[in-house]
Amino acid sequence: MRRLTMFLALGMAIGAFGQTYVMMPDSTNNRLVLFDPETGIVVNNNLFGLAGGTPLHALQVGNEIWVSEQLGDRVSRWSLTGDFLGAIGPSGLDNIRGMALIDGVLYVTNAGTANGAPGAAIVKFDAGTGAPLGSFSTTGLAPSPFGILRDGDTILVSSASANDDIHRFDMNGASLGTFHNSTSLNFAEQMAFDANGNILVAGFSSNNVVVLDRNTGAVLSSFAASGARGVFQLGNGMILWTNGSGAHVYDPAVGRSTLVYSGGGRYLDLLVLRVEGDVNRDGCVDDADLLAVLFAFGQSGAGLAEDLNGDSVVDDADLLIVLFNFGNGCE
């Protein structure tokens, strides 16, 4: 009953399933917030409640949302409707921050040594099973890692302290040298690509958001952003950024930021909610999905894409799901 209620509330708050949103943990009020990825306007100010432990980065992993808890020293796992599904850690993790999902592997930035954690390092886990896959040290390169961003076959790791603001590594953790280190950026937190493929970086202590050339790491531009933590470029060209006061939208045309959400702003990432009845996952419930269910009608077994209600058989119930949602998500 709780699951049904949550889905109904979600549907009323944000419309049809299958849409894409920007999500952010509010570490003051311990809840997950959704924003419109085009405008940055708040769509749902409380999708569901989070545990304590300073939730910092929410990341979609399949049909789950995984949240790094900086002081909780764990990655908590949640269903899309807010059911707690367990956690990775605290064993092997201490003072964790940003994360990245790369080719089925979860990369977690780690700073401390409690709980058997490796200190300044990137700790890796299998995103399917949660099993630990080892770690690599960032000591002396990114001594206090805060964010991680995949760039082709390499990863960028931002740091809260010297030596480098951002250091580049290969996927196995071998150093590929400094990406950026200057007085223009201090205490670098989240990184994200902008519309031109360059790198946005939230500078917590430099009180700005900078744009770095993707190839050289040189500063291309910046704007004032007090205590910046998270950053994401919106579809309309504006920049959604966060700090301890909440979330703000920066308009480059007028050079001004507007507060759109009050709370404990943290990292920003995408959440894609599947359209109910969308068998082929193209975001639209149409003839293709109807035909898929009809051709599979009567089949049984675990994991069938056409088994929309999860009872291990493709039957009338699945057909009704497609018919009931027909046209959802379509232009």
Q: What is the H/E string?
A: HEEEEEEEEEEEEEEEEEEEEEEEEHH
Helix- and strand-based class? mainly beta
Our count of domains comes out at 2
Low-pLDDT parts are: 1-17
Number of helices: 3
The first-level CATH class name of the largest domain? Mainly Beta
Query: What percent of residues adopt helix (DSSP H or I)?
Result: under 10%
CATH architecture of the largest domain: 6 Propeller
The CATH homologous superfamily of the largest domain is called TolB, C-terminal domain
- What is the rounded Rg? 21 Å
Task: Explain this structure.
This protein has three helices and 24 strands. The chain is mainly β and 331 residues long. The strands form six sheets. Strands 3-2-1-24 form a four-stranded antiparallel beta sheet, with helices on one face. The protein has a four-stranded antiparallel beta sheet with strand order 4-5-6-7, with no helix packed on it. A hairpin with a 2-residue loop joins strand 8 and strand 9.
